[in-house]
Structure formats: structure tokens, C-alpha cells
Write a structure and sequence with these properties.
Length: 271
């Protein structure tokens, strides 16, 4: 079943298009990856869906979620939906936390805003959420600066999944992490997606992640989609010269794909 249907989405700045006529569907539980070079419009597209564009940008078109056009939602209605039905995880995990509030307080504020739960139950839920991303419950009382980048990104994933959203929009979640932490965070996201059954809109530069996790792929260039389809057809039989050049510029992809096909086990991302 279609969860989100984006139709003819365009984003402009002072009359100049940044994203033009973008259309795609995400099915329930599906992992859709958006790839493309820096500046191709991936983040602007993802931000437009949840009303997270910078104030100088305007969006038009449709983003139908359960049949309702999100672009027509009031700010208040969208705020209610964001975090509960549609959640975001950003590259800049630092920005997801207020430095002078404990990790626990962030969870508590979220739960207080969206649910009517007694204090003890809120605390239990937050601690369980931290444990679900491999963190100790004692992280509840720590301040953001007392956590590593990987731990903070895990906390932001736990926070994003707290209300069991149907759709998780993830914008380069590992760009600021070292490769081992990045690998762990991606595996965690994949496990949690399996567990919760949420759909994932995943923005990345790294085609190895796409090869491993995506069902469908969108390729963006200069604000427009140049190719889209299922993972195998886009990565193994790319039609557009731009997709071909992206794949060619990602030498580790052919390596990863050989390893996957041959059942090799040397590549971190293939295990
Ligand atoms: N608030 C803004 N004001 C003006 N231009 C913007 C704004 N936000 C984004 N842009 C421009 O829109 C274009 C698309 O940006 P976007 O962030 O979506 O690219 P991206 O594909 O996500 O790139 P990256 O992979 O580097 O994050 C870029 O040319 C960017 O400079």
C-alpha cells in the first residue's frame, strides 16, 4: 500500500527552481534511497515533505500522506504529524539536542508533548528506547556533550522512532561519523526498520549503503529526477549517463556487489 505519494513537487527560491517536478511513491515498509551529487536537491526534496524548508524557499505540488496533501497542512497540524507519523534523522545530530538539557529531558519533553503518560512510564519508555539502539539506560541522565558522535546519532534515532512513525526520513545520517560508527548506525537503522516495519526515505552519497539496504532508488541531478526504479535495475542496468557516472565514480560499489554475489566477507558493509 502506498504510504506517501509525492506528485510534481517543486521548490523555488525567489522564482528560481531548486527542485523541479519531482514525483515518487513510497510503499509501506519500503526503503527508498535518493542519490545524487552534492547540490542535486535531495535534502530540499526531503525537507519540503515535512515543512522543514528554510523560510526563503517555497514548495508546490503534492505530498499525499494517507491521501492528505501535507503541503497544505497548517504549521500546527504538521508539527503534530512530524515526530509521530513522520520522523526525521539528520546528518547534524548535534542540532537535534539542546546542549544544556540531558538526553533524558529531550525524551521526556517529546513524550509529554505527544502522549498522556505518568512520569514513571515516560522514564521507562525513554530508557527502553535508549536500550533499543544499544545504549545503556544510564545515558538518560547524561548531557549531549558527554556522548560520542555515534552515541548521539543513536539517541537521535531512538528519539525519532519513539512514537513508532510510519515513515522515517533519514538525511545522510552517517556523514559526520567514522566508518565503523557509520556502519553500526546503518545496521541499527536496518534492524529497526525490519522490527518496526516503518518505511524509510534515505538520502545518501554512499552507494554501498544503497546496494545493501534499498528497495527502490531515485537518482537526482540539478533538482530533477533523471532515473528511478528498483535497486537492481538502477544499479546493475543504469540507463542514464549520469547514473552510470555516479556508479563509475563509486569503485567500491562494484567491489561490494561482487562480494555480495560471491558471498565474500571482507567488506564491512556487506556483513
Ligand atoms: N535556503 C536555501 N537558500 C538558497 N539555496 C538553497 C537553500 N537550501 C538549499 N539551496 C540550494 O538548493 C540546491 C539543492 O540543495 P540540497 O541541500 O537539496 O542538495 P543535496 O543534494 O542535499 O546536497 P548534499 O548532498 O550536499 O547535502 C543547492 O544548490 C543548494 O545550494
Amino acid at each position: 500500500m502506498t504510504l506517501l505519494s509525492v506528485n510534481h513537487l517543486s521548490v523555488q527560491i525567489a522564482g528560481r527552481p531548486l527542485v523541479s517536478d519531482v514525483s515518487f511513491d513510497i510503499q509501506q515498509g519500503e526503503w527508498l534511497a535518493i542519490i545524487g551529487q552534492s547540490g542535486s536537491g535531495k535534502s530540499v526534496t526531503a525537507s519540503a515533505i515535512g515543512h522543514l524548508l528554510a523560510p526563503n524557499l517555497t514548495a508546490s505540488g503534492e505530498a499525499l500522506y494517507m491521501g492528505e496533501n501535507l503541503l497544505e497542512f497548517s504549521a500546527k497540524k504538521m508539527r503534530r504529524l512530524r515526530g509521530t507519523s513522520i520522523s526525521y534523522v539528520f546528518q547534524d545530530y548535534q542540532g537535534s539536542f539542546t546542549p544544556f538539557h540531558t538526553i533524558g529531558r529531550h525524551f521526556d519533553e517529546f513524550l509529554k508533548t505527544h502522549f498522556r503518560l505518568p512520569k514513571r512510564e515516560r522514564r521507562n519508555r525513554a530508557e527502553r528506547a535508549l536500550e533499543s539502539v544499544g545504549l545503556k539506560a544510564e545515558m538518560y541522565g547524561r548531557y549531549p556533550f558527554q556522548l560520542s558522535g555515534g552515541q548521539l546519532q543513536r539517541s537521535s534515532i531512538a528519539l525519532a522512532l519513539l512514537a513508532k512513525p510510519d515513515l522515517l526520513i533519514v538525511d545522510e545520517p552517517t556523514a559526520a561519523l567514522d566508518s565503523i560508527s557509520a556502519f553500526k548506525v546503518l545496521r541499527l537503522l536496518a534492524d529497526l526498520q525490519q522490527e518496526t516495519g516503518c518505511a524509510m526515505l534515505f538520502i545518501t552519497h554512499d552507494l554501498r549503503h544503497v546496494r545493501k539496504h534499498a528497495d527502490q532508488i531515485i537518482v537526482m541531478k540539478q533538482g530533477a529526477i533523471v532515473e528511478q526504479g528498483d535497486k537492481e535495475s538502477v544499479l546493475d542496468r543504469p540507463q542514464h549517463p549520469y547514473t552510470q557516472s555516479l556508479i563509475a565514480a563509486s569503485p567500491s560499489l562494484s567491489e561490494a556487489s561482487d562480494l555480495l554475489r560471491g558471498g565474500g566477507s571482507v567488506c564491512h558493509y556487506c556483513n
